[in-house]
Amino acid sequence: MAGIDLGAASPRTTLDVVGRSPATRRRVSRIALYVVLSVISVVMVVPFVWMVVTSLKTPTDIAATPPTFFPTQWAWHNYADALAAAPFLTYARNSLVIAVSHTAINLLVASMAGYALARLRFRGSELVFLGFVAALMIPTYTKIIPEFLIVRFMPLFGGNDILGQGGTGWLDTWWALIVPGAVTPFAVFLFRQFYLDLPVELEEAARLDGVSELGIWARIMTPLVKPAFITVALLTFESSWNNFLWPLLVTRTDSMRVIQVGLSVFRTENDTQWAFLMAGTTLATLPMVALFLLGQKYFVRGFANAGIK
Amino acid sequence: MAVVSAPHDVSAPPTAPPRPAAPKRGRAGAARRRAGMLMLAPAVLHALIWIGIPLVAAFVLSFTNYDVLTPPRFNGIQNYVDALTDPVFRRGMLNTLVYAFFTVPVAMGIALLIALMLDTQLRARALFRTAVFIPQVTATIAVALVWLWIYDPRNGLLNAVLAFFGIPAQNWLSSTTWAMPAIIVVGIWQGVGLKMLIYLAALQSLPKDVYEAASVDGASKTRQFFSITLPLLKPATFFVFVTSVISAFQAFDLIYILTDGGPANTTTMMTYEIYKSAFREFRLGYACAQSIILFVFLLLLTLANRRLNGGDSGRH
Predict the structure, then answer these.
(1) DSSP assignment of A233-281, as one string?
(2) pLDDT (tens digit, 9 = 90+) per residue, A18-42?
(3) Given an 8 Å threshold on Cβ–Cβ distance, is A292 in contact with B43?
(4) Nearest-neighbour CA in chain B from A14: distance (Å)
């Protein structure tokens, strides 16, 4: 554990005649390791710090050449001004509604499916599983045009007739923002992996006790895979909150916009207001960073699990 | 857990001690199969509507002329011919490959190096790991806006830092030379954390005794890395490669914010051309053909990697 351990190094060098140079070399390489890792970490983190300090700068500080890193005057009012300049809070609320809905639906539907694929096999379920694995491979951009058309021509919605003509379908509605992305094959896949690891005795004992299949899933097996639920919840929430292209395509009005789309629109409409833009970006970023720091263990486990299994 | 341990003792059937997991016949089996189908139904239905049908539709539409307002008209393989001969789309394919080269194999090398550095007894290891991973969880749009500001020619951070070292300022994102490298840097910066994390988890699960045996046999550290570590990392490498290729080929948000495909199409990507064809020019059939070409690229790369890397034998 000891990073720079001065005490331990000296007795070893006195005992070992040729030991001086390896011990020193080890210490030097250790210090080099810290330096390299620190430089990398700074490069990774500086853009975020730059984002936050910019959001607190006055227009004078922003226009300064060369720029100072920290504001000469901390303009805390930028946040209030940014919220007045664009409805960032509405955007954030919309993103939150969608992310929470996606998470709830994905947890329910994908965990049931993953459980069925792992424990309740039937003729053809292996094929269904392969279908989900194949679906993992299909790029978003191959699906997105027909998905847009399905939403646009959704029968009997948004003034459309039974053939999907005449109106705008699901465009600019919660339906379009929530339904198509609600269940992910990745979550089904991940849940299946977790349910596979549970011992079969548990479910057989419950079955002999007369617990229904749904009851076995909900009350006996599911409490044992809580980490899977937290992992899928975090990953779903994150990708939903960060999604851009789909909400860009299916929303038209400001009141339906999500935070990522709102930011990009604000940028094109107010080209030079960097302080406000960075204030909005900070608001869009902080929830995810906070969530990640809180649930880091599960993020790591989720990504790593998917990679190793 | 206590709930199920009690009945378990009572219920051990006297006739059939070690029965295999899934009984195929009987009323209980039928009930179980029915439950399985019902629990699977919502996910399958959702996947059929939002993945299955769109995939088939994209394929069918790719052979038509379609502008949303009038019904699609069959035009054979014309869209594919157009796409593969269009200089801008070809540029997009080339750019995508260049971007993928730097954000997949090159970034994987960087990620593995960082993972190796972190796979040691370090103080503050968690802190380093968090720092490297954080860009991964933040939205690409937000990240791109921050980098847009960093790359700003007049007041940006990058030019200020370079000026400190006496390097002249650049107009990064409007330069045909620098725009692509600028985008690649952001791509690597954002994606390296996930790759590193998977490698680190894989490194930590490697068996320690193999290394001890190798050390006893006198194998050098370098030798150990190439003959033990790298081969044992194959499943992780396969997974990292596939997921990274999928995301590299779908880079869009960065381009949308940073360059809009310019200057002079030097940063346009296949995805960006699909978006432009479909939603700016309303040539949906043509865009579908472009999207099928993208899909074929991904399939070929995945299959090639599976061949080269010996597959993903450790998984499912």
Answers:
(1) HHHHHHHHHH--HHHHHH--SGGG--HHHHHHHHHHHSTT-HHHHHHHH
(2) 455 778 888 888 889 999 999 999 9
(3) no
(4) 25
Residue with tokens 């054979």: B76
B300, B303, B308, B314 alpha-carbon torsion, rounded to 10°: 150
pLDDT digits (tens, 9 = 90+) for A188-241: 998 998 899 888 888 889 888 989 889 999 999 999 998 889 989 998 998 999
Query: Is the pLDDT confidence value at B220 over 90?
Result: no
Q: Note the pTM of the prediction, 2 decimals.
A: 0.86
Q: Inter-axis angle of helices A274-294 and A88-119, to 10 degrees?
A: 30
The mean predicted confidence, pLDDT, of chain B is 87
Q: Which of A193, A64, A188 is nearest to B316 (CA)?
A: A193
- The pLDDT of residue B5 is above 50: no
Q: Which of B31, B51, B249 sits opposite A135 (nearest CB)?
A: B51
Shortest alpha-carbon distance between residue B121 and chain A (Å)? 6
Measured CA to CA, the distance from residue B79 to residue B64 in angstroms comes to: 8
Q: Which helix (H) or strand (E) holds B64?
A: strand B64-65
Which amino acid is present at B31? A
What residue segments make up the domains of chain B, in order of their start? 84-309
pLDDT in tens, B233-244: 988 888 889 889
Distance from CA of B215 to the nearest CA of A (A): 17
- Closest-CA distance, B177 to chain A, in angstroms, reads 23
Residue with more model confidence, A166 or A278: A278
**Which region, left, alpha or beta, applies to residue A67 given φ > 0 means left and ψ of -120 to 50 means alpha?**
beta
- Do residue B7 and residue A207 have CB atoms under 8 angstroms apart? no
Query: Which ipTM value was assigned to this complex?
Result: 0.86
In chain B, what residues touch A165 (CB-CB under 8 Å)?
Answer: none
Domains parsed from chain A with CATH numbers:
6-77 (no CATH), 86-308 (1.10.3720.10)
**Contacts A304 to B, Cβ<8 Å:** 197-198, 200-202
CATH classification for the domain delimited by B84-309, as one of 3.40.50.2020, 3.40.50.2000, 3.40.50.720, 1.10.3720.10: 1.10.3720.10
Average confidence score pLDDT of chain A:
87
The per-residue pLDDT for A306 is: 58
Question: Over the stretch B93-148, which tens digit does the pLDDT of each residue have?
Answer: 999 999 999 999 999 999 999 999 998 888 888 889 999 999 988 999 999 999 99
Nearest residue in B to A237, CA atom: B137
